[in-house]
Amino acid sequence: MIGNELKESKDVSLSEVLEILEKRKKRSPLGYEQQTSFDYCETFSKLSLVDIKKMIEELKEIEKITEKVAIKITDFLPVKDSQLKIILLKERIELSADEIQKVFEIILRYKEKAEEHSKKIQKRKAKETIEKERKAKETIEKEKKAKETLEKETKAKEEKAVKKEKAVKKPKKEKKVKEKPVKKEKKAKEKPVKKEKKAKEKTVKKEPKTIKKKKSEKK
User: Fold this and answer.
1) Minimal CA–CA distance to 110: which of 40, 59, 150, 157?
2) Is this prediction's pTM over 0.70?
3) In terms of CB atoms within 10 Å, which end of the chain has fewer, N or C?
């Protein structure tokens, strides 16, 4: 990692790297580089860590093979002479025909175990993909439900707001309705008063005539 000083380094097999990363993955999520290393080791590791260690010890019994070369052989499990020679040439190691034969005998003994190991990894990958898909579906369903609840809440709030507005507007209309009959009542009261006034005025006008008649009778 950036900023960390490298204290020591050693050659390790892909299976060992995979086990280290698996332990770290359980504690906390892996970074981008760690995840790519994990995926690579998971895809290309040939054997379990227990079998790798056993095979390395068996290969090291051949005099010229070092631990580094033994690790590379266990990682690649070469089947042809040309494949094995590429590994040996990089480390500048020459083996006799008998030694090469011994290497292939060891590889063949672990070939079946390698197939079993790859099957286990494939099953685990399949389970992981199914689990990821299930979690993805769950998150999508949760998001949908959250959206639906939000929409319902917003609709309910809007409906409440509309009802409140209507409730506020209704009393004003009632007042207007009540005011109208009051005005009519006032007008109705005013009309008989006016009639009474007119009736009184008529009686007042009629009275002088009667007085005049009485005066003429006296004469």
Assistant:
1) 59
2) no
3) C
Q: Per-residue pLDDT for 205 more than 70?
A: no
Lowest mean pLDDT among 4-8, 19-23, 141-145, 163-167: 4-8
Distance CA(168)–CA(161), nearest Å, equals 11
Q: Locate 119 and state its tokens.
A: 């099957």
Please give the Cα distance from 37 to 39 (Å, whole number): 6
DSSP state of 48: -
Question: Token digits for 176?
Answer: 């207007």
Phi/psi at 7 (nearest 5 deg)?
A: -85, -45
Report which secondary-structure segment, H or E, holds 141: helix 97-218
* Structure tokens that stand for 77 in this block: 């499990």
Q: Which residues contact 106 (CB under 8 A, 6 or more apart)?
A: 55, 58, 59
Cβ-in-10-Å burial (0-12, 13-18, 19+) of 85 comes to middle
Instruction: State pLDDT tens for residues 145-195.
Output: 898 898 888 888 888 888 888 777 765 555 554 555 555 555 555 556 556
Tell me how far apart the alpha carbons of residues 48 and 54 are, in angstroms, rounded to a whole number. 10
Nearest to 74 by CA among 86, 59, 63: 59
Give the dihedral sign, CA 168/174/177/178. negative
Q: For the chain, give the mean pLDDT.
A: 79
